[in-house]
Amino acid sequence: MKLNIEPYICVGPIKFDLLREKIHAIIKSPFIQFEKTTLSRSLTDSYDELGLHVFYDESDRCEAVEIFTISDLLYRNAPIFDKSHNENLKYLDKIDSSTEKDDVSIISYSLGLSIFSETGIYNPDSKINSVLVFRKGYYD
Fold first, then answer.
1. For an engineered disulfide with 117, which of 64, 128, 133, 138 has Cβ 3.0 to 4.6 Å away?
2. Contact in structure between 114 and 120 (CB atoms under 8 Å)
3. What are the residue ranges in the chain where pLDDT is below 70?
């Protein structure tokens, strides 16, 4: 599945603010539901075969998508999973000078995405583990 990120709008065919049942109709793949954390406000849909988690708000509207294994996730026609943690950091810093970083994550609020790497700054050449793409207000 080829997925292009459009900041605050969609990840491929998965559009933010669509109702859960519409997302199910779009993805058309088996999923399980689970509580991602104890702070979760709604159940998360896990599409294990596709390497996707879809997050919903209290109104069952899509608010974020986490991508784990899809190698053709693109932002501005540039593959994300093909780059190391450090390469993604440099790439995002050029686009968004306000990118936030910690030991394992790179977050761009202006682009609506967060990149996670288990080893992050400890192994900057490591591949990333997941990308979270979110709608406006997700971290508010």
1. 128
2. no
3. 71
